[in-house]
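This section describes the prediction task in plain terms. A model, or a person checking by hand, is given the sequence of a single protein chain and must write out its three-dimensional structure as a string of tokens. No templates, partner chains or ligands are provided. The sample shown here is typical of the held-out split.
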Amino acid sequence: MPPTTTLPTTLAELRDFGWRTKSVKQEICDNFTARLAAGDELYPGIVGYDDTVLPEINIALLAQHDMLFLGEKGQAKSRLMRLLATFLDDSIPYIDDAHISLHDDPLNPITRRGRQLIANVPADEVPIAWWPRDERYAERLAPGTKFADIIGEIDPSKLAGGVSMGAEEALHFGLIPRMHRGIFAMNELPELDELVQVGLFNILEERDVQIRGYPVKFDIDVMILFSANPATYNRSGKVIPQLKDRIGSVIHTHYPLERDLGIEIMEQEVDRGDERSEAGDPKNVGNPDLRPLTSDLAVVIPYFMKELVEEISRAARNSKYIDHESGISARLSIANYRTMLASAKHRAAVLGESPAVPRISDLGHLYASSLGKLELDLMGSHQMSERQVLESVVAAAIATVFGEYVEEHGLAEIAQIFAEGVKIEVGDMLPSAHYATLLQRVPPVWEKAFEVNAAESDAVRASCVEFVLAGLYATDRISRSQSHGRIVYEM
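The expected answer:
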């Protein structure tokens, strides 16, 4: 329904207005089709699914199906479900009566009270209100959910007031009846109690609600969405077959197929006001575009640091030490990205430097933001702690990204200078001037390091130095010793 300043307030006005009843799935289908034909953006904020997930959702919407989003954690399942609510009308009319617990359709009421009002009260005296789009979506997490929460229950207080147990008025509605003419989403379906699953497949098949076996039925109009992890959904006995059979479409999600897509997601989710990347093509970032965070502090993020943060998540997904059934959420990249930025800002504030530029040594703080996001493979033969696993994953990520830059910039030549006894100390709280002083005493071959991120800023050059040193170490070209947050690289 397009927004208007003169929405009907009575049933008579609604009929004159020309309102026509639609099922919620038909309403979504019609609005989706109109936006699709107009070339509008359909799923804002969803990255990397254009050729895989989104076409399947489009077909399911046109088929007017209930849907299951099947994927590991951090694959935007909940966000996709919430976005489907944007295809609802701006608002829809309902009978405005305090004794009706759901948003009953004035032209097709399903409650006894609603039918009585329409039949016995003059149309110009039946009050109409409007239910806005943002209130027509509700979701629930499966663990701990009871039948009464989402279906309903007999209300003892109403029985005490003299209402018959078999009467509609004796019921207290759960979420699904209250979302009549809306969208209901259930997260982590396999964790849902079996009794509740039985109630759900009855709604999916018959579109009605029956509570405690009493002959009270409602022709519920609701789109139902589910999310689940493949490892638990496919496990025998977790989801009853009758419920699986009644779900119209299964939408398989996935992690970003390319690193650059993961970086785009990571940047999108981090507050854009907290950081500003250097301008231009990500690998040709010669002129920093600095946006002050405060009156005297700005942040510049070399692209290779963004690549490293995302590659850590990608390396974790391939690590033999990590349980792959659980998955590695995109939240790992987002949390680690924020931690890396925070460490750079902390150094800049303490040392009075600007801009703040993240370095490899800032990744030493990632344990705090990674804790709990990596589930170890306890069935494996290794005996490694979570910290040791994270260190292994970070080293693998550095080696991967560094290897790409070695091919592009010939950085391996720098390793030769350590054969002459050169030692270089780095650390997350060392000033950028420390690196500039060191570089005055080493051969000109170091200039190759700054092809990685062309900039004259000492802070950016310090970040490049650490990246090259960490890459040389990760690829076994040099050694290092570590003590109290300081690292010394040598041959």
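For orientation: Residues 386-409 form the longest helix (24 residues).
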